[in-house]
Structure formats: C-alpha cells, structure tokens
Write a structure and sequence with these properties.
single chain; 300 residues; alpha+beta; 13-stranded mixed beta sheet
Length: 300
C-alpha cells in the first residue's frame, strides 16, 4: 500500500509518541548512550494540535504510523519540535516528505526564520537540514546531577523567587523578557506552562524588579529559564537549582547552551554531568542564548 501523509488527529498522538520514543532510543543505543527516552502523555503535542493543526503530521501505511512531524510558530520563528521515522522504515524518504509538509507550515505562517534542536551525533538528519538551509549554530548539553549532591552545597548569589500566576501583569513581564532575549513573544507557551500541574514557575526578583523567570518540573528538570540581562544568568540558574532541590526530585537536570558560560561553569562546579549532547540549527542567528536555557528539544 502507498504511504499516506496527512494532518494528525488527537487519536494519533499516543501512537506517535511511542514511535518517537522507539526512534530516539534506537538512535541513542546505536551511538553508545543507551535508551534515553520514555513515554509521556503527549500534552504539549495536543496543545500544539489545538493551537495550530497545520503543524502536526503523520505518515501512515496500512493503519500503521511510520513517521511523525510536529512544528510550532511564534511570531516570525518556526520551530521543528519533532521529526521521527520508525527505525524499521527509514530509507524510504518518509522524513523528506514530512519535512516538505512542515516547511509548508512555515511558509503559510509567514515565518522568516526556521530552527530546531537535534542530537549532535545525528549526522544524517543534520545533512538533511543543511540541504534545506538550516545550519549548525552551537551545542546544547543536557546536564544532570543527583539532588543529594546539590543539597547544602549551592553557592553564589540568588534572586528572590516569586510564584508566577496567570495574570495580565505576569504574562506581560514574561513576554517582555522573551522578546528581549529570543526576539519573539511566547505568550501561548507561557499560558501552557502556567496551566501544567507538573511544572512550577517562578519570577526572579531583585528588589521589586523582575529580572527573569524559571520553570521547574516535578521531576527536577529546569527550563525554560530566561533573564533580561546576560550578567544575571548565573544567579538565575543558581536560584533555579535551589528551587529544584526544594521540590524534592531525586535528580536535577537542565539543558545548557554552549553560549551560557555562566550556567556551564556553575553546573560543572556543582558536580553536574553531561548526559546527552545536542545542537541548535537555524536558517539565521537569533536570540541571546547567554540569557536563555531551553526546556527541551521540542519546546525550546
């Protein structure tokens, strides 16, 4: 039977998530990292599907999903959150066909920049993206450490953490910081995070001034985190680490861009270790990544 490429439906998302997990673990095993991904309810994918259905696609053959692509748009930025093909069906140009459809999403939205985060060792995909005008910019490392190792050892100045709320005032503060650091406002994504029961958000204050924000999941993962001034990143990251320790998860982790020297230095000084190397690719430079820590490769 021929492969069908169609917009995704809500009922496809759990099956697509299993495909993505299997594809990631096949890739990381082959490169000596072992299995890295586990299945989760596809909450962000569902949010994106409802927000902009043009950005979510599946490749299907005989009622089996062989590939999945998911992209989102904020302002003039189009971001490819996921593009994966079943390990048993790679080499059939499924990735190319899905990419064509996601690029149509970018064109339709009027985005002037395209970006994504991929595995550093995924050279086949990088070649595909380069052929389509997305070029490597800098590495992003996932760091992790046990909560026990951090407890009582965090040093350095911190900001005053204040719980974020879904108020017009808080949303405007976050939008202003995002626009300054990333060049785009991500209000819809902030609303999603504030409604996520598995994540807590804090504003980072110096006196009465909101310097930035940070989100921490109940699993101890930090991100996104942003500051209005790059020189505030170190104190912001230390504050987020302390907040993650207080939340009680046995592990604490964060994605740290290569441009965030302050965060990288703090991570290494406190015993954090790199678990997986990743890479930002885009059609042009954007944002000040010395002041922003992404949440994960899909959310950015």
């Amino acid at each position: 039977m021929p492969i069908t490429y169609r917009p995704a439906r809500e009922a496809d998302l759990e099956r697509s998530d299993r495909l993505v997990v299997a594809s990631i673990n096949d890739l990381t095993r082959r490169h000596g990292f072992g299995p890295m991904a586990t299945s989760h309810p596809p909450a962000v994918q569902l949010f994106s599907l409802k927000d902009d259905a043009d950005g979510v696609w599946v490749a299907e053959e005989a009622d089996e999903i062989l590939g999945f692509a998911w992209s989102w748009v904020c302002g003039d930025l189009w971001f490819l959150a996921q593009l994966f093909v079943s390990p048993d069906h790679q080499g059939r140009s499924i990735g190319n066909e899905l990419l064509k459809r996601t690029f149509e999403h970018a064109k339709k939205s009027g985005a002037t920049n395209k970006a994504l985060i991929t595995f550093t060792f995924n050279t086949v995909s990088q070649g595909l993206y380069i052929r389509n005008g997305l070029f490597p910019r800098f590495p992003i490392y996932n760091f992790s450490v046990s909560r026990e190792l951090l407890t009582g050892r965090l040093q350095g100045p911190q900001f005053r953490p204040v719980p974020l709320e879904e108020t017009a005032s808080d949303l405007q503060k976050l939008a202003n910081i995002d626009a300054r650091v990333l060049g785009v406002s991500r209000e819809k994504h902030r609303r999603y995070l504030l409604s996520d029961k598995g994540t807590k958000g804090i504003g980072l204050y110096s006196g009465e001034e909101c310097i930035g924000y940070a989100y921490v999941s109940i699993g101890g993962h930090i991100g996104p985190l942003a500051v209005a001034r790059p020189d505030a990143l170190g104190s912001a990251f230390t504050t987020a680490l302390a907040f993650a320790v207080e939340m009680g998860s046995p592990q604490v982790s964060a994605f740290l861009p290569g441009a965030s020297e302050a965060a990288l230095r703090i991570a290494v000084e406190h015993g954090m270790r790199i678990t997986i190397p990743m890479l930002l690719m885009s059609t042009r430079d954007f944002g000040d990544w010395s002041g922003y820590l992404p949440r994960n490769p899909g959310f950015m």
